[in-house]
Amino acid sequence: MAEPNAVKTDRFLLETVRLAVALDCVTVCDLPDNVAAVLRQGYSRFGELLLRRASLPMTPEEDMLVGWVLDVIVARLRFLQGLHHGNVLN
Question: 5-24 vs 60-85: helix axis angle to the nearest 10?
């Protein structure tokens, strides 16, 4: 039996929140190599989430919430990338 759309959307939202929390746990105290790996994995996962979002039917409210979490993810990735390339972590 196919999974209801609401369950798919809830699972997707949970995945986006988990990525946001994982990225928020990375700090300037982490080793530069670790941050580089997190950035690679984070951008890859972010791209996967964007593709899945496009194929997932959502209510306007769900889409707004998912969009907000994705905005948080990309902002955190950009922040970490700026720190990493700005030699703050090196």
Answer: 20
What distance in Å separates the CA atoms of residue 24 and residue 39, rounded to the nearest whole number?
12
Task: Count how many residues are written for the chain.
Answer: 90
pLDDT one-digit tens code per residue, 39-56: 999 999 999 999 999 999
Please state, in angstroms and rounded to a whole number, the distance separating the CA atoms of residues 38 and 83: 13
Contact 83, 35 (CB under 8 A): yes
- The one-letter amino acid code at 44 reads S
Sign of CA dihedral 44, 24, 31, 82: positive
- Residue 89, number of CB atoms within 10 A of its CB: 19
Helix, strand, or coil here: 58? coil
Look up the pTM and report it: 0.83
The CA distance from 13 to 32, in Å, is: 29
Tokens of 6: 């609401």
